[in-house]
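ok trying this again, last paste got cut off
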Amino acid sequence: MLVEAGERILLATDFHLGIEYELAKMGINIPYQTDRFLGEFMDLVREHSPDRVVILGDLKHGVPLTSFQEKREIPRFFRALLDEVEHVDLVRGNHDANIQNLAPEEVEIHPSRGAFFGDDYRVAALHGHAWPYPRLLAADLIVMGHNHPAVQLNTPLGVRITRRAWVRGNLDPVRLAEALMGFEKVKVEEDPLATFEAAFDTVIRPPQMVIMPTFNDLMGGLPVNAETPKSLLGPLFRSGAVDVEDFDVYILDGAFLGKVSFLRTLVTDPTSMD
């Protein structure tokens, strides 16, 4: 995802480098995929010439331990990026334990609660497994990974398939404020937005959210139109602060498929497309 925010920011998420090692322990042997992932990502870097690359967590796969494969390949991944881009950032995901030991000192590693990027256009970047910092709700755009979003579709033969997907929609600032104040143990007054502003010195804009698909095509996905909203991973969904029913769904080639609520009907009643 390329965002023009005063600087050109290229964002990606959920590479899960090292998953082959875990699969091998389960008896599933596949060639190492890091060179393929790195090559595909570097093609994008060279095509778009970003000022900054931001990885939204889960660059590594092994948790809590770090495999020999990750110790070898993650430093090489970072070094390749640093050869092309001046600024490389990583927001910690739930799989990124001890990643600071694998990253060159030029890589800036941010806490799991997220980080701000951009100037005129403010981008809040987080993985999604932890509550965001309150100040991030002042962003124009919140971008997250973690959920491995996909869409489930019915083929004419009656076979269901899933495809990685982008999910995008507008957030309700009141619901966001109430949920985050509940986590921070702030008493919610009559006006949640005014209470939030007073408590955190932050004004919530009505932000847009994009849930990014995994870069790693081995990871599978969570079909957003076949799961209840609270089945999505992370506190923003479990708390009810984000309801994806009215969010738009796009597959990787950019084709717009419709809103989650509409696509849900295609799973329960395939004839509803007629």
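PB: full thing came through this time. The CA atoms of residues 100 and 109 lie 7 Å apart.
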